[in-house]
Amino acid sequence: MKNENMIDTRPDLKLLSKLLFRLLPMQIFLALVGSINCIISGLFASNFVGTDAMTAIGLYSPVNMFIFGLSTMFVGGTTILCGKYIGRNEQDRVQNAFTVGNILGIAVGLALSAVYLFMGLADMTGFVTGDAAVRALFNEYIIGQAIGLVPLFLGNVLASFLSIENRANLSTLASIIYIIVNLILNYVFVSTLHMGAFGLALSSSIGLWVFCLVQARYFLGKSSELRLFSSHPDFGEIGQIFKIGVPGAATYGYQTARGFIVNALLAAYVGNAGISALAASDNLLRLAWAIPQGMVAVSRMLISISIGEEDRQTLTDVMRNMFRRFFPLMAAVDALIIACAVPLTRLYFRDTSDPVYMMTVWGFRILPICMPLSLIALHFICYAQSSDKQILVHLLSILDGVICVAAYTALLIPSVGMNSVYIANVLNGVTTTIVILIYAVIMKKRIPRNMEELMVIPDDFGASEDERLDLTIDRLEEVVTVSERVKEFCDRRGIDDRRSYLASLFLEEMAGNVVEHGFSMDGIDHTIDIRVVHKDDNVILRIKDDCRPFDPSVRKEMRDPSDPAKNIGIRMIYKMADHMEYQNMLGLNVLTVRI
User: Fold this and answer.
1) What pTM, to 2 d.p., does this model score?
2) Is the CB of residue 377 less than 8 Å from the CB of residue 432?
3) Residue 245: other Cβ atoms inside 10 A
């Protein structure tokens, strides 16, 4: 048990873990929405249109990966850039980057819609398949998909920023409506009106418009701090969005190439049954892939903000959390999928004598093994993307995206057949994990001894362990010890008596306010994360808590004639501090004081 007079100083701070797991369900759900709708399309295709329609969806998969990569570029580039600005408290630049990202998404969506319509109407898709019947269905499918490209790009950006504004519940509502609309329209267009592949895609596209518009209403109203479009956007941010977003999105560009290569190998060595089996297993496994995608989305937000704040501890804690909590959770999910391989296959194919049946079963038995390994690669790509480690980003992206899977498949398929594709994905995860370790060894010139060395964090980034003090407070009794611990830290660092006294006084006062006004308001266990940093003769205090929004600047202005001493502590701090900033980001209150 923890001594009542001791404040928690664990390196894996409780507040971070609580935040990650609070944000995780929503990010998984957002990733799940697209997966659920792909599954709906796949089930309607296999049961109401036919095997050729399932093959057409399988052939569209690489194209869809390309579209997802573009969306990731705008979402990732805009989110990471804004995260850095949030970390620096540059609100005007956050608004501008958000506007530019939205405009870019709409522009690219319109351009690609025109390309899709031209290719589908003019039958310019011969490079995808030589089968005339499948190509006709593929053409119908991309014409229907063209209608939903604009809301797809814009809606994904809006969902990411709703999480930052702590309005993820609106994305949940939009996502649920999207699924319901898609399901109803598939029944009407495909099952009742027999509109075939065009009906499959049109159902999803209309659902995307509903998804986007429900979210857009928030940014058009008065309650949002961000506007959907600012009046005079500075398009100079385009370069930064591309610079940050392209490397991370390159993975999906490489996966597009990989998809075409693998489909060609399957067509040559296995036939259309192999393409259908891969499409079916991959289609349903999208549900499971939503989990690592959600995990990476949550980590991306915190990584970008940590880099903007130069918060070395939180940056490494995010990666520790991935290894200690996300990885085991993903492994458990995958074990469940493997155990359910046969019933999952029967959702698509029921004839056990058909070769496609066992091909699909083995897909569910082998493919899930690669997911925990991919989680590692995706996190390191995200971190490298945020910290401008371009060599590592491109190396992992091209290996994970195309080289490993395509090369291993080409090597194994003559002797192993269909299972070569599944095995190649597992070998890909092993290879990228080894490359991450080798990169750290080369850069540090030794085997990494801790997480900071594995991540190759520069020595001059943020505050070292000697330059900072991290404290976690869970109970009222712990507040009284804050002053002593901070005073000890300041004395050890040789900070002058005035600032040492103010630092201990400020933190005791502010932590006490959080406990008094936040801990007892909702019956939920809360945590305060305190950091004191002394670097380059600057003393910076930061308090994070997961209580209800509490802006001390508002309370500072509140006066009570009957009690002149009310809020006097907060007024005193504002008067004596050199600078104070308050933000509410990702549902956390963040107060930064410079003295």
Assistant:
1) 0.66
2) yes
3) 26
Measure the CA–CA gap between 281 and 284, rounded to whole angstroms. 6
Q: Is-contact 305 87, C-beta < 8 A?
A: yes
Instruction: Give the CB-side neighbour count of residue 98, counting CA atoms within 13 A.
Output: 29
Q: Rounded to an integer, what distance in angstroms lies between the CA atom of residue 20 and that of residue 23?
A: 5
Cβ atoms of 82 and 303 within 8 Å: the answer is no
Structure tokens at 489: 């830290």
Maximal C-alpha separation, the chain: 87
Would you state the structure tokens that stand for residue 432, as one six-digit string? 């990228």
Helices (DSSP H) in 221-271: which residue ranges? Answer: 237-269
d(CA 83, CA 165): 12
Q: How many CB atoms lie within 10 A of CB 147?
A: 18
Domains and CATH numbers, the chain: 14-451 (no CATH), 465-594 (3.30.565.10)
Distance, in Å, from the CA atom of 224 to the CA atom of 220, rounded to the nearest integer, reads 8
- Record the tokens describing residue 444, joined without a space: 């540090």
Distance CA 558, CA 561 (A): 10
The span from the CA of 159 to the CA of 59, in Å, is 28
Structure token pair of residue 487: 């005073």
Q: Rounded CA gap, 454 and 444, in Å?
A: 9
Tens digit of each residue's pLDDT, the chain (595 residues): 344 444 444 444 566 666 666 777 767 776 676 667 677 776 777 677 766 777 777 778 777 777 877 887 777 788 878 877 876 767 788 888 889 888 988 998 999 999 999 999 998 888 877 788 888 888 998 999 999 999 988 988 888 788 777 787 888 888 889 889 989 998 999 888 989 889 988 998 999 999 999 999 898 877 777 888 887 888 888 888 887 777 666 766 777 788 889 888 998 999 888 888 888 888 788 778 888 888 887 787 778 777 767 778 788 888 988 898 899 999 999 999 999 999 999 988 888 998 989 999 999 999 999 999 999 998 998 888 778 788 888 888 888 878 899 999 999 999 999 999 999 999 999 999 999 999 999 999 999 999 989 999 888 777 777 788 888 777 777 777 777 888 888 888 888 888 888 888 787 777 777 777 777 666 677 778 888 888 777 788 888 887 777 666 655 544 444 444 455 556 666 666 667 777 766 667 777 787 7
